């Protein structure tokens, strides 16, 4: 998750000014989860918010997140059976994520919530609108949901939409993801749906493991050695004998999500995983340490990043409250008892699972939803298999009750998979190209200049992109190209002509694409047969990247053995000694005409 202004606004430490926070005098002692906290905790923190428990809204949110959490662990067990983890903390991490990243307090919750409606929002319309704005990731702040991870050009990279189970409800295409169209679009309403949104977070977090494994398959990845060693440690069955060490899995995956795969916090936690120092492990979930004391306790050399080092503990702190853990030593006096019926889980399970899809025919692209009868039968069969009655009650503060819930849901999910003949972790790497609905535009790998594309549909702008080398943009067939030009040459008319031709002559059996090049101040726009993207190896860190936008002066790059500084904004222009000597945008570092300091 990459923080930006809006993400900050819905995260700890910078909440909206017009969203009231819980006052210290009003801090409850039961039937509530206190969240948006810092450590060490105290009741006079002005950032805290409260989720009232034992309401229909809260119970539905808890159940839907536990169901999605079991889906998360179910897929992990199926695809990575060697991985060891704490069942409680992995299963409930999504609920903690929801509380920390947006929240469920009265000022932002959906006040029209009804437990009997299968589709409804988590949040009120105003807050939902903010969460679904372009570049955001809904209430779970999965802000890169619309992208392949770790990146679009690495073989094996997958995005959320590549998972068959969620693609039909999300209702955008793999092509929308790969072209960048979805990234610049509003988020689907489903990202804030009470029963589907937790599932999107589950699949996104599951995909984080694939993201890390793809990165670590490359020798150039800075954390390769640490990740490989850590994964070996996390796969050791003996890990389960040490409760502190068993927390490494959920902590590290939380940091991958929250801080990123190149972050200093991830390096710190990977080092803890590699060393398995008992003192560091014992302090990993310590609620009583200030930011710097905490970093010192886990052996981190970092002196910044308080937010990222808090996050895994915050998630754990909120779930401890839900489970009735005594937190008086951490400064919080609260005693919660939440009990839920198996029949209640049955209802929420059906609401969630019937929003998931699968391919009835693996050779075709068509997706179909799990039916209500399939979901209900799967759950009732699980009840019978485990000798549980729908009237049986489960108390979340009871360890054996929680284990029984997880087992019931896991068996029910497995029953659905058997009924539909498909695993929920099934993926489709590439979607079909339909030239009657979308037109593909490709930029040449050696394009010169800084071509800019603007396009609209029904009067609304849908694309504003620099056409860097190897850019792939997909436009709806009923869109319009408004401009395509370099600073000195206008190629708009040629682009519009090619677009109109493909729109009017689309042949599903022989899809074509628009090829864009620009050489020697000349537009070179042509129509050719459609060719799928070819993966491009990532550019080593620090070297010149022809596809990168260098929007700040004095970024240092290495190219063909020489170091250069850009003097102004540029993209796609190759650094060369000849251009440097003739007042080009790139200047050799240390030369008199380089305005940047070495």
In short:
Residues 1-24 form the signal peptide. The chain has 598 residues and is an alpha+beta fold.
How would you describe this protein?
The chain has helices at 5-9, 56-79, 87-101, 125-131, 164-170, 174-179, 197-216, 224-234, 243-246, 248-259, 264-275, 278-283, 291-297, 306-322, 342-353, 372-385, 399-420, 492-504, 577-581; strands at 32-35, 49-52, 339-341, 357-358, 368-369, 393-395, 438-443, 452-457, 460-466, 472-476, 480-485, 512-519, 522-529, 549-550, 556-559, 562-566, 570-571, 586-588. It is of the alpha+beta class. It folds into three domains: 5-330, no CATH class; 438-529, no CATH class; 539-598, Seminal Fluid Protein  PDC-109 (Domain B), CATH 2.10.10.20. The strands form seven sheets. The protein has a four-stranded mixed beta sheet with strand order 10-7-12-13. Strand 8 (452-457) and strand 9 (460-466) form a beta hairpin. The chain is globular. Residues 1-24 have low confidence and may be disordered.
Approximately how much beta-strand content do the residues carry?
5-15%
Number of domains: 3
- Helical residue percent band: 25-40%
Could you give the order of strands across the largest sheet? 10-7-12-13
From the alpha-carbon coordinates, what is the Rg to the nearest angstrom? 26 Å
Number of helices: 19
Any low-confidence stretches, pLDDT <50, length ≥5? 1-24
How does the helix and strand content classify structurally? alpha+beta
Mean pLDDT: 91
What is the tally of beta strands? Answer: 18
For the sheet with most strands, the description reads:
4 strands, mixed
Keywords: Signal
Protein name: Chitin-binding type-3 domain-containing protein
GO molecular function, one term: carbohydrate binding
Signal peptide: 1-24
